[in-house]
């Protein structure tokens, strides 16, 4: 525990939804829900306007629609959110070399290590500057908590929401925590909270008064002792700049249960390829392949296989995942599939299996033959325009009307609102055929206008943003409404 509140916790306010509102003037001040739009979709983030109706993160999308029928429901643009996160993390890096990201929109910062704070006043000033810089660079707001420990800083940022700053003076921790519900403390979920309630403990003060021995008796040695320390406001965990990645995984929830075994196998292969892409992007390889299958009755099975050495070869991962699937009974249907790789390393061991090597050679030979064939096209032909998918909320550009975003699509039509983040008023709405040759997906526009940039979509119809002004990462195309959503 520190004698000064020099640990900062930043939490962006309703990050995904706020980014969508900032990029779409017509949605500002209105309820916005971001998540999977299929029948099994889950809310990733709800704006504060939507939360007034009861919508919240991790809620089934169908329930959110019942609670907030007039909200705007959008498919996530993770590449867009990631580009904004990179800008925010860069600002945090200017404060200190010790920045511990927890997610795209949340991080701890050790202000003392950066030499920017040493007491309450300097810490408050650093927090206020950070909030101002985030708004200037991204156009979004974040809440800041300052305290002498990570646990208290996180609690403080939650108390400061939305768009606020809360500082907990050292020495006041126990008085501040005492009346709070036990669920305030990290690690106390619904089950533990109910267990403590039955024992007559509903506030943090109750936990402190119960004593360590009683909590150990109720919850076990490790959990009970840890909970008692937190109830007393004690937390000496340091801010860690680099956290080792333990695993990489992807999963999808399907709108309709999969019954065809061939379709299930194809989906596992596709997930294996996506998992390897993420694995390579993180600079890792892995030894243990994990398959996750959730069946029609919500029973979840996990199977794993450990290889002789680490790999990032998609053929090897596909093979291993396929073997694991062979041991799972999918009779009755599958609602979720996932493929992961753990036991990570920063090197690879080639040719783990002869059959995998045998598969790679024909693929490489075919690729070489295609490249050598003078009659082969230089690049793949674009998909049939009639088959193009227009996810709600994603960016588009029309040859005549300029940049806009998809409000919705169906029955062969797509509705687009033409506006930009800097438009002074909500833009016009127009409807096109889904195969309109003048309409195409586009990259997100920056949320904050640069010098000399105009705010009207019509003014930008004949020009596109320069690469330097665009977000670093291209937004990921929406893959149907059944994609699994994780909480931000």
Highlighted features:
488 residues, alpha+beta, 33% helix, globular
Topology record:
Blueprint: E1 7-12, H1 15-23, E2 32-35, E3 43-46, H2 48-51, H3 61-67, E4 72-74, H4 78-95, E5 99-103, E6 106-110, H5 120-138, E7 142-147, H6 150-160, E8 165-167, H7 173-177, H8 190-198, H9 204-210, H10 212-219, H11 221-231, E9 247-258, H12 261-281, E10 285-295, E11 300-311, H13 314-326, E12 334-345, H14 354-372, E13 395-398, E14 402-410, E15 413-418, E16 428-433, E17 439-441
Parallel strand pairs: 2-4, 7-8
Antiparallel strand pairs: 1-6, 1-7, 2-3, 5-6, 9-12, 10-11, 10-12, 13-14, 13-17, 14-15, 15-16
Helix pairs in contact: 4-5, 9-11, 10-11, 12-13
Strand order in the largest sheet: 5-6-1-7-8
Look at the helices and sheets and give the structural class.
Answer: alpha+beta
Low-confidence stretches: 351-386, 460-488
Output the radius of gyration.
25 Å
Output mean pLDDT: 84
**Beta-sheet strand percentage?**
15-25%
Could you say which overall geometry the principal axes of the C-alpha atoms support?
globular
Distance between the termini: 28 Å
Q: How many strands appear in the DSSP assignment?
A: 17
Number of helices: 14
